[in-house]
Amino acid sequence: xxxxxxxxxxxxxxxxxxxxxxxxxxxxxxxxxxxxxxxxxxxxxxxxxxxxxxxxxxxxxxxxxxxxxxxxxxxxxxxxxxxxxxxxxxxxxxxxxxxxxxxxxxxxxxxxxxxxxxxxxxxxxxxxxxxxxxxxxxxxxxxxxxxxxxxxxxxxxxxxxxxxxxxxxxxxxxxxx
Length: 177
Prior knowledge:
Layout: H1 12-20, E1 86-91, E2 102-106, E3 115-120, E4 126-129, E5 141-145, E6 152-154, H2 164-167, E7 174-175
Parallel strand pairs: 1-7
Antiparallel strand pairs: 1-4, 2-3, 2-5, 5-6
């Protein structure tokens, strides 16, 4: 099964930035006021208490915002608990979130490369971790395993980003049978 459509998802942040004006203000050349500073803006002041370990666990249901880009909040200039190194949502072909299983990050495709990290898919279909990953210096392959080990899927090419839902939106969901 093919996971990603095209390899154009690296252009998505630029497109969003261009459409949103990259924080430019209609009020003048000075940019937004402090009240208008949004997550992602380098001027966003993140509470250091949020910089904690945050890793998904099987059957747990504390995650939220299925299908949304987790890195919008869980990043150095965002309000989310933990700075994620990879995160996303896994769906069944029916459209329901997959509960259980794992997302493996490997050095080669086909589930054959060295295992760098395995992240559990939680009870809401989300997977996320703050554990260190070699992105962007090393590209990795994503390989999915169902809870019973019978269902698998993989991304057919490596990536240097763990922001899975940035590209895998409603039109290109991550699927696992």
